[in-house]
Write a structure and sequence with these properties.
6 strands, alpha/beta, 10 helices, five-stranded mixed β-barrel, OB fold (Dihydrolipoamide Acetyltransferase, E2P)
Length: 292
């Protein structure tokens, strides 16, 4: 009931209350008069809710569904909490439209909450799966790195045999010399360099001209040089020492590929087919193996 109406009725019946005596008789008379004016029916909250017109019902129902399907089960665990938040968020005139909110939305709230919790569980499981997969990748990467470090130490110590030119370079503590074939240094530095190539022109039993050739046999070296799979015509000279001469003479083939680790000892000049004069580095071999 509205407070203003109650006090108006109380004032109207004040004289009768004075005649009647105690305050409870005054309140009783007021309530009887209110019941009489309402047609003999008691005024209840359900009668108040009937004042919510069609427009308000539509708007409040739409707002309720919008909020219902965006709930966070952790923050709004019960339908009572949901309805309470609804009533707190609307204009006072619209509160009466949520008088039966709990009974109206109980089942729907339960379904939405269950769906949200199931979705949250699935998302957590997926996040856990991805985390586990990443941790496994990190673990494998760490093991591979550890194995690579151990392999490198074994190569440098001579405990294992190199499997490719990249490992040969590691075993000899050599740098990659691919770029020297096209751009020799002004002053040879005497360092060890690893290069692949093929025998192009033989000059006696101890020297030959090599053409830089990059292929499947030295992919590891090529990756170490940070290059693509480009093949270009670059040349360098190779000097074969006495320790490798028998192997070179017995296994060397013109036009065939090889892996080399050599000491950069000099530069030499040569002429191209077109007559252009170019410089080429000269390497004294410390490791020389023909491709199979």
């Amino acid at each position: 009931m509205k407070i203003t109406r109650f006090f108006a009725l109380t004032i109207a019946f004040a004289p009768m209350a004075v005649m009647a005596g105690p305050l409870d008789e005054l309140l009783g008379a007021a309530l009887k008069e209110m019941t009489k004016q309402s047609g003999g029916q008691k005024i209840t909250a359900s009668q108040n809710s009937s004042a919510c017109d069609g427009r308000q019902l539509g708007e409040t129902a739409s707002a309720a569904h919008s909020r219902l399907y965006s709930i966070d089960p952790q923050k709004t665990p019960t339908v009572e909490a949901f309805c309470s938040s609804l009533r707190e968020s609307v204009y006072p005139a619209d509160v009466q439209c949520y008088a039966n909110c709990e009974s109206r939305y109980r089942d729907e709230f339960a379904q939405v909450k269950a769906d949200r919790e199931q979705r949250a569980l699935a998302e957590k499981e997926e996040a856990d799966r991805r985390l586990a997969a990443q941790q496994e990748e990190d673990r494998k990467a760490a093991l591979e790195k550890q194995a690579a470090v151990a392999r490198e130490a074994d190569l440098r110590a001579g405990r294992v045999k190199p499997q490719n030119l990249g490992e040969v370079a590691t075993a000899h503590n050599a740098e990659i010399g691919v770029d020297l074939a096209s751009a020799p240094k002004v002053r040879p530095d005497g360092k060890l360099y690893a290069l692949p190539g093929k025998i192009a022109i033989v000059d006696g039993e101890t020297e030959f001209v090599a053409q830089l050739t990059l292929g499947a046999q030295n992919d590891a070296l090529y990756r170490m040089a940070g290059r693509g799979y480009e093949i270009d015509n670059r040349y360098y000279y190779v000097k074969i020492p006495k320790s490798l001469r028998d192997y070179y003479l017995n296994n060397g083939q013109i036009g065939k590929g090889f892996d080399l680790v050599g000491k950069y000892v000099a530069n030499s000049k040569y002429k191209t087919v077109s007559g252009q004069e170019k410089a080429a580095p000269v390497f004294e071999a410390v490791y020389f193996v023909m491709w199979k």
